[in-house]
TrEMBL record, chains A, B:
Organism annotation: Roseicitreum antarcticum
Top-rank EC class of the record's enzyme: hydrolase
Gene Ontology annotations of biological process type: formaldehyde catabolic process
Protein name as it appears in the record: S-formylglutathione hydrolase
Protein role: Serine hydrolase involved in the detoxification of formaldehyde.
A single cellular component GO annotation: cytosol
Recorded GO MF terms: carboxylic ester hydrolase activity; S-formylglutathione hydrolase activity
InterPro entries: AB_hydrolase_fold (IPR029058), Esterase-like (IPR000801), S-formylglutathione_hydrol (IPR014186)
EC number: 3.1.2.12
Family stated for the protein in its record: Belongs to the esterase D family.
Catalytic-site annotation from UniProt: 146 (charge relay system), 222 (charge relay system), 254 (charge relay system)
Catalytic activity: S-formylglutathione + H2O = formate + glutathione + H(+)
């Protein structure tokens, strides 16, 4: 593992690291914030998954999460959103290929060898960070924005009891029914809708739900509401009797100003769930 | 005045606007955060001046100031750091020309017609924003980072009683004695060191001081300590018996992670001074 940068922040350290990933078959870069409490003992972890076009960096510099993480003694991990590099397939569209891994394991050419973001985030990167840093693998929570909200919710529901709590900012809530999803799932997984269901938070919510609290924030003036389909997730959460909260925030759009505005609530929500573990 | 964007943030609005500036003879872009309190009455203003290479955008998305401004009912203004555009002179160096206006009124070619950032920030932009937005001109404070810390301190001391309080993050504290200053002051103002003194915070602090409280934070692991020369400012503040606080923060570097880490303290410091007006 190579250190790209380490900056003191809020009494802790905001680092950026690069490592060879078996899951994606190439080098991956991620951000990790260690709060001051990590100097004394292992700290709980909040995973933050980013949206379309993002790298590890966007949320790390724009979401303002470190202040709240330091206050609550949580580490933050910011994975990249796809494999990258010259040998990695890409697409001209911003919502396919590099920067748009959709948190699935691709089975179709030309994506299959590298686009294995599900395994990267749930297996490969955890193995690395829990080995190298002062982090408590028994206390993990997950959140994300847009495509990353989709990733956070589907991974929370798909990984048994690993995550104590799950939240999302404006998640792509029903990708199997949306232009943000159908193209990508068909491209990465093939024309086999049966394999898509585990990558649809609304379907998963309806079928299995999540064994822990859920918090979802959605901007009421989000320019992508038709693609995000939050009503399907709200419906499924209520139908499932899922322990959780779905909040429609009037006037907020899809930007990081929206994410930053409610980041404190999300970090405190996860901190509380993690304290109960 | 043209609206470039307006995003809901922390219950208020983060806007970006463009306007024709008489001071710089061209279009200028700035960011302005209006807290929720501005919907009911005029709110006090905290000016934030940015550093070398920055536009209006860097602090607006990276410094995390809006959360604290909303909590304290302050507006934030983020001016650009220089005139820009095809007709505007520039230099190959990152620390001269566009992105590096140094908050002076240039008198020398090729800079003189456009590089009038002192007048832009102290006259032109105030006239516009106090006319267009729900802001209280009687309650202003100023801060900044690096070159912007230099601008904030020199403008605070050079504008009589306009600003209730002044603060800086890692300011260029003694430009007349530093490679971050001598080249620029000579270029913009000519080889006339007598005209440079009012643009040197350490000299101004020693000669006149500031009629209000001052807060300065400096990272102890800042990679530019030799250019910033904070010891000259600390010396001058103490010699002047300036009401204020100079804090050396061990381990912090020059990045926005440093700025964000202490932004809450600065906003609260200014809010308290503004409440006393």
């Amino acid at each position: 593992m190579e250190i790209i940068s380490e900056n003191r922040a809020f009494g802790g350290v905001q680092g950026v690291y690069r490592h060879a990933s078996a899951a994606t078959g190439g080098d991956m870069t991620f951000g990790l914030f260690l709060p001051p409490q990590a100097a004394k003992s292992k700290v709980p972890v909040l995973w933050y998954l980013s949206g379309l076009t993002c790298t590890h960096e966007n949320a790390m510099v724009k979401a303002g999460a470190q202040a709240h993480a330091a206050q609550n003694g949580l580490a933050l991990i910011f994975p990249d959103t796809s494999p990258r590099g010259d040998g990695v397939a890409d697409d001209d569209a911003f919502d396919m290929g590099q920067g748009a891994g959709f948190y699935v394991n691709a089975t179709q050419a030309p994506w299959a060898p590298h686009f294995r973001m599900w395994d990267y985030v749930t297996e490969d990167l955890p193995a690395l960070v829990f080995d190298h840093f002062s982090l408590d693998a028994a206390r993990q929570a997950i959140t994300g924005h847009s495509m990353g909200g989709h990733g956070a919710l589907t991974m929370a529901m798909g990984c048994g009891d690993r995550f104590a709590s799950a939240s999302a900012f404006a998640p792509i809530a029903h990708p199997t029914g949306s232009d943000w999803g159908r193209k990508q799932l068909a491209g990465y997984l093939g024309d086999a809708p049966a394999t898509w269901a585990r990558h649809d938070a609304s379907i998963q919510m309806r079928e299995t739900g999540f064994n822990g609290p859920v918090l979802v924030d959605q901007g009421g003036a989000d320019q992508f509401l038709d693609l995000l389909m939050p009503e399907r997730l709200a419906d499924a959460m209520a139908a499932r009797r899922q322990a959780g909260t779905f909040r429609m925030q009037p006037g907020y759009d899809h930007s990081y100003f929206f994410v930053a505005s409610f980041m404190r609530d999300h970090v405190q929500f996860h901190a509380e769930a993690l304290r109960a573990r």
